Amino acid sequence: MNQETDFIVRNADENDIPEVMEVNLRTLPENYWYGFYKFVLDKWGDLFLVAETDKKIIGYIMNRIEDARDPVLYGKENELIKEKKRSIEDIMSSFKNMFSESHKVGHVISIAVLPEYRKKGIGTALLNEAIKKMKDNYGAEAVYLEVRVSNKEAISLYKKLGFEEVRIVKEYYRDGEDAYVMVKKL
Ligand code: ACO
Ligand code: ZN
């Protein structure tokens, strides 16, 4: 393959699901059944995007919109920055947050690009387009995701786009690996 890959980013439709599933199976150990893709597509189709070249799907991103009451998920708190001991006021304010109004946030469920098409800006294009729509179409305040702590490529993509690690979830993955939760405020 030559250096330049012309690709487009477009909305997925139902006919794309089998090909998206193939990309997912080739790239990630976290796999889903057809019905899950269909559900996400029916509910948040505007946020379900594919990258295509010569009519072939080479990457995808799927997302959902959630109501978050957890301040870490809407970008208000970072558990990995160890400040002074939490004061009574902080604890009261977290407690109050749990009962306060929820905040609209985008959640990146899964993003992947086929190995032979990586490092060409496709992941960046998929994520940027999805984030823009989370903001424009839903008024999302933040976007968050989980990523394996060992996934250097993905973590550097997220950092480049302004995400920060805000939490570690121990043994998040089935094989026992921990996840970072990463958040970007919009
Ligand atoms: N080494 C270091 N940094 C990298 C690498 C790498 N191999 N690949 C990407 N990056 C970083 C760089 O900062 C890069 O910017 P630069 O090109 O200016 O250096 C930035 O990411 C953007 O790279 P893109 O070309 O836009 O990303 P790409 O199209 O390669 O896709 C992706 C990145 C989706 C993470 C790809 O590597 C992939 O499919 N990996 C396997 C699946 C996966 O791990 N998905 C994420 C799981 S977590 C989740 O889904 C929420
Ligand atoms: Zn998730």
Description:
The structure is a single chain. 32% of the residues lie in helices and 28% in strands. β4 (103-113), α4 and β5 (142-148) form a beta-alpha-beta unit. The chain has 186 residues and is α+β, with helices and mostly antiparallel strands. It has a seven-stranded mixed beta sheet, sandwiched between helices. Zinc ion (ZN) is lined by residues 107, 109, 145-146.
Question: So what's the oligomer here?
Answer: single chain
Structural class: alpha+beta
N-to-C terminal Cα separation, in Å?
A: 36 Å
What is the typical, i.e. mean, pLDDT? 93
What's the gyration radius in Å? Answer: 17 Å
Q: What small molecules accompany the polymer chains?
A: acetyl coenzyme *A, zinc ion
Order of helices and strands: EHHEEHEHEHEE
- Provide the CATH top-level class: Alpha Beta
Spatial sequence of strands, sheet with the most strands: 1-2-3-4-5-7-6
Number of helices: 5
Spans where pLDDT lies below 50 across 5 or more residues:
none
